[in-house]
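Structure first, sequence second, as always.
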C-alpha cells in the first residue's frame, strides 16, 4: 500500500512538473505583444517578410537605431546591422535627429518570402 501511494505521488509530481514546464515555455511566445496588432517589415538584404508589433511607441534618441522606410529595412535577424527592432522613421530631411520617430518593434521569425 505504501509503495502504491509513493508511486501515485511521483506520478502526480511528474505530471505537475511537466505541466509547469509547458506553461513556462509558452509564456514568452505570447508575452509582450503590444496591443496585439501585427505589422509586417520587409528585410531587403534577406528578401524576407517578418511580422512585428509595436512594443514601445516612443523611445528616446539614445543608442543604435535602424532606418525603417515604408515598411522596408536593410537588415534583419542574423544580419550584422540588425539592432533588435530599434527603428527610426525619418521626418523627410534624411538626417537622424530629434524630430524623427524612434520606436521598438522586434521582428518575429521565421521570415517568409511572401507577404
Amino acid at each position: 500500500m505504501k509503495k502504491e501511494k509513493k508511486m501515485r505521488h511521483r506520478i502526480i509530481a511528474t505530471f505537475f512538473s511537466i505541466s509547469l514546464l509547458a506553461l513556462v515555455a509558452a509564456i514568452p511566445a505570447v508575452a509582450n505583444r503590444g496591443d496585439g496588432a501585427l505589422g509586417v517589415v520587409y528585410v531587403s538584404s534577406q528578401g524576407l517578410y517578418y511580422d512585428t508589433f509595436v512594443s514601445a511607441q516612443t523611445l528616446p534618441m539614445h543608442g543604435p537605431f535602424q532606418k525603417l522606410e515604408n515598411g522596408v529595412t536593410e537588415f534583419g535577424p542574423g544580419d550584422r546591422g540588425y539592432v533588435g527592432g530599434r527603428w527610426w522613421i525619418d521626418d523627410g530631411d534624411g538626417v537622424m535627429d530629434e524630430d524623427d520617430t524612434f520606436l521598438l518593434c522586434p521582428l518575429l521569425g521565421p521570415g517568409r518570402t511572401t507577404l
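Margin note: The chain is about 25% helix and 25% strand.
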